[in-house]
Amino acid sequence: MKHLYLATALVVSCVLAKAQDFDHYQTLLPQGPVPKDFTERSSAKVAVDISSLDQKKEKGRVRKAKKKFVLESTYSIDGFLTGGSVLFNDEVSTYLASVLGEVLKPYPELQNKIRIYAVKSPVVNAYTTNNGIIFVNLGLLARLENEAQLAFILSHEIIHFQNKHVINAYVNNVEIRRGRGDYRNLSLQDKSMVRSKFSQELESEADLAGVEIFLKSAYKKDSIHQVFDILKTAEFPLTWGRFDNQVFEGGQYIFPDTLELATVRKPKVDDNADDSGATHPNIRKRKRAVVRKLDKGGTGEEYKVSKTQFLKARKLAQFDLCRTYLLDHNFMEAFALGLSLQRENPESAYLREIVAKGLYGMARLRIAGKLTISEDTWTGEPERFAAFISRQSSYELSVLAIRELYRCLELSPDNEELSLMVDDLTRSFAFHEDIDLSEEFKRSASEKDISELDYPYTQYAFIGFRDVPAFFTRFEKNLSVAAKLKKESKIRKRRKKQRHSRKDKLIDVSKVVVVNPFYKKYDLHKRQKARHQESEEVLVNINDKISEAGGRLDLSTEVLNTHAMSSSQVNIMRSNSVLNDWIDEKMRSDYEGMISPIHNEAVALSAAHKTEYFAWVGGMTFKSRKHAKFFYALVGATVIPVAPLSLIYVGSREKRTLYYGLVFNIRNERLEVADFRTMPLKDNGHMMRSNLYYTLFKLKKSTYEP
Amino acid sequence: MRSSLVILLTLLAGTAAAQVPGYMGKRFTIFLDGNVAPAMFVQNENNALAVRSLFAGSDLPGSNIEDRPYKKGFAFNYRPQATLEYLVRRRLALGVSYSRLQMGTVRAYQTGGETSDTDYKTDFDVVKGMATGFHIKLYADSRSEAIAPLGFYHMLSVYLTQTNTYDDKHSKVKQFRDDFKYPVVSYGWGKQTMFARNFLVKTGVELGYAFVPGNYMKEDRYEWTVQEYSGYNVHGSLLGYYLINVSIAVGYIPF
Q1: In terms of CATH architecture, what is B29-252?
Q2: Which of B89, B194, B202, B247 would you mutate first to test chain A, the one with the most A CBs within 10 A?
Q3: Residue A554: closest C-alpha in chain B
Q4: Of B116 and A103, the one with more pLDDT
Q5: Which end of chain A has fewer CB atoms < 10 Å from its terminal CB, N or C?
Q6: What is the reported pTM?
Q7: Closest CA to A309 of A171, A66, A102
Q8: What domains does chain A contain, in order, with CATH numbers?
Q9: CB B144 to CB A679 under 8 A?
Q10: What is the pLDDT of residues B30-49, one digit of tens each?
């Protein structure tokens, strides 16, 4: 009995340890053993898929098109699978698999053929691949109302797989593009219309046949038509409740009425939009067709797997979407969703920080003059969120963001990310404003009010903190840094080029992590231009080259290579997911020094991998036909001395290799090495080694100003 | 001597700490070059095409070339060369080279008395010798980046040639008392790629100018003596030999 209690306690503690704490939410990451879909080599998948194509009765060109489809789609899907946004064995994917299992109960033959994964994407969508993978975006799950709706969406996707819609659409598109068979002599516009019509037919078929599958399940039929209402509003922001700016007020820091919106515009939802040229029929048509068929169905339950699990999966999706919005620089969406979620989770530090980070992003964009809020999508109640932000000047928004960031920082003083954001925004704010900011804010309630301010209410922004003097010490420090930067930038403008100082020191780097190396080979002379298999071969063997290059420089290397990964190496996928998000955000950001919204996650990885230096390397190589061959042959024949040269020219192909290497210091978010090269040479293993070595060499020789 | 030592030490001190990646940190290369040129500008016993075009219809001494047992075909001259090269900067290499020269020339000799103007015969001889050179190679090209020693290069070379003529390529008996010693400058352009670990292949073109006396180009060749004829032919051969070459080399990067 004692053992039973102990075992139960252990299991419960394990479950609790793994369970998501929404107050300190951690982003969803892949878990457990890596599925075969992720580890199996693409070339092996292509071989199997091509051999399984039933092509005996098909025409030669159809066979060719199908083979090409298998080749291209397999490599493309595998790139997507290992790109870091696809989840597996996590709570959401596991739940999705349970619902899929419920839907497929009457279809045992399909159960082992279809796999399902959640995707960290805000787009309201689910899609299927020809080889049986269903992807469900978190953006869709976050908007669903019950499990039955999810079940219907999965039924729709199952039909796409069962009826081979993806490959058939591809083959049909090829036929249309080439003007074969019935599509002969069509104009471009006609071709586009025919393509659209065919796609719409497939979607309608998936809807109607999907209903058949759905009707066989035990889910409630009535709520299905609401799925189309969700799709109808897919482009609108995900918020709920009425926005109240009082959540940001405190003491005398009260917003003027001008920031509030008296009335909101009604959202313009057109479910009967012109769908000619679209891939899907319009929502009204789809809804009518499905509802007509549903009349035949009986009643059922909204939840078969579990209501709790659905609500949790949806909540996870909504929480994770906030992070994705920040990474995508959709700061307004993150801000609004964060505030909406805060109503149900008022104690969540994660949401508090999401809102503060959203404000930070918008303030930085506003300073750069690049904050845009679409008037078409921000209508209805969400318009109040948008108006609150868009009606504030750069000055007001910066003050608000600094205030919110600092409030969060006071609650978690060790939060490096928030600390960097406070410093960065204060400096950017001071850099941008031509006035002395130290005289713009009251430091205690007893101080006399400051007169002649453009925005008088902002003077009270910083007097409500727990430790006001500590804030102003930091504030002053940042103002002086900004002043120094301003001065240096003027000098730099005059000098144009900044030279390295003798005082600069070599950075101390002993290890570097190379993240998901990239390589593509193209032969533009051949019909199959992308040489997928050869590219894959290079990537599978790249670890040794990186290790050798690092070894020559006494640099320890670790490669997060998803092309050479076993099922037990889930950590590669987890690190890869965070780091790819991090670099994508960095590439998206053209605002110097802007702090990543997932800085802390990246720093945690830095500790796990025992280095601050992470590299992204890759290359592309092209082979193509040389131009003016006849001319050079003629020159060679006429001017005999240059004959050998013209012979070499005529007999060879044009080769070009592009290489890039970026090395970042994750902790200070500084780009240490930016290495780009175009070489009109044929790429091979030695060239790759040399390029890799040079990137790492540059890293070793990088300096910093002490 | 002292000043050259100071310059050399300064150069070495400068390069020791230079940021030179080389190939995986290796900066020293040994090349074996075969500088190939079609025998258009310099006679070659095998070069039927060139020899015919040069002498056809001529009543010059030696124009009875049709009688000579030349081989039909298209011939090349070559200049085997060993080159040592060291990367002193990221894109800059300095090198020295040693090459063996061997090319054809035509010598005239009198068969009649000394006063006879007509009793000339001609003979194909071989110019042999060597050249030592120094070059600066810059790995840069407007359309590409390079990681020396891989990539496109521009090269400036200076050679000192020392040649004499011999009866045939195996002969060791010099036909002129003094060797011909002339400087040559050349400009080369090409690319270097790696075909096996540490092994390079170089392909390119080298255009050179040998600083030989140019009087043979100005003077009336009917007034030449047999000695002048032979000497001037050597000058012409050397000039033609360096004029245009296709650089094909195999290199090794030991360290």
Answers
A1: Beta Barrel (2.40)
A2: B194
A3: B25
A4: A103
A5: N
A6: 0.86
A7: A102
A8: 25-233+269-308 (no CATH), 334-499 (no CATH), 506-704 (3.40.50)
A9: yes
A10: 999 988 887 766 666 555 44
